[in-house]
Amino acid sequence: MNTRLDHRNPLVFDTHELGRRPGAMKKVARSVPAPDDLGIADVIGVPKGATVELDLRLESVMEGVLVTGTAHAPVTGECVRCLEPVERELDAEFQEMFSYPDADTRTARRDEAGDDAEDEDTLVLEDDLFDLEPVLRDAVVLALPMQPVCREDCAGLCSTCGARLADDPDHHHAVTDIRWAALKDLTVDPTTQQNGAGNGSDDDQEK
Predict the structure, then answer these.
(1) Which tens digits make up the pLDDT trace of 82-128?
(2) Which of 170, 163, 153, 154 is CA-nearest to residue 81?
(3) How many Cβ atoms sit within 10 Å of the Cβ of residue 48?
(4) Alpha carbon 117 to chain centroid, angstroms
(5) CB–CB of 149/81 below 8 Å?
(6) Max alpha carbon distance in the chain (Å)?
(7) 186 vs 166: CA distance, rounded Å
(8) How far is Cα 63 from Cα 96, in angstroms, rounded to an integer?
(9) Bridge-partner residues for 157, per DSSP?
(10) Three-state DSSP class for 195?
(11) Are 66 and 15 in contact (CB under 8 A)?
(12) How are beta strands 25-33 and 51-60 bridged, if at all?
C-alpha cells in the first residue's frame, strides 16, 4: 500500500553515496518549488510554487541518516488586526532521523513497550531515498507566527465602521451615553412650559 518514492521529486533525496558508513557526511543545496498548502491554512504560508532554498547536511549513523538543515522561503498572509497583506522571509531549521528499514534488527536500542508509538513517528529510508516534505511542513508551520501582524504596533480596525486606524490616528466616533439616549428625542412645548410657570405663580400668589 505504500507509494514508492520518485527520485524525480525535488523533495526526494538520495543517500546511497553515504554507503551506510557511520561518520560519512554529505552536504546538499537545492532550490525547490513549494508544495501545496505549505503553512497555516487561511492565515499565512509559503505560496505554492515559490522558491524554497534548502541547505542540508546528511550524516550516516548506525541507525540511518541524520538530516539537519534550513529552509529559506518567502511567506505571505493577512494581518489578523487590520487584514492588510503580510509579506516576509522565513528561515526554518529542522533535524530528523531517517532510519534504515532493518535498523530495528541491527540495534537493540528500542524499548519493546514503546515500539508501536515509535513506529508511528519513525521515518524510514526507501532504497536509500527519503522524502523531506513532511519534515519541511512541520518545520515551516512551527516557524510561522500563529497570528501574523503587518507590524507590531498595528492598531487594527475601527470596531464601529471598519476603518484602518493606522491611516487616521485621530479617527473616532461621538459616543452617546445610553442612559440619556431615550431623552434626546423628547421636546418641550415652550407655551406649555410658560403656562405652567404662570399657573404656578398665581397659585403661589393666592396662597
Answers:
(1) 899 999 999 999 999 999 998 754 444 444 444 544 455 789 999 99
(2) 154
(3) 12
(4) 27
(5) yes
(6) 121
(7) 39
(8) 12
(9) 164
(10) helix
(11) no
(12) antiparallel
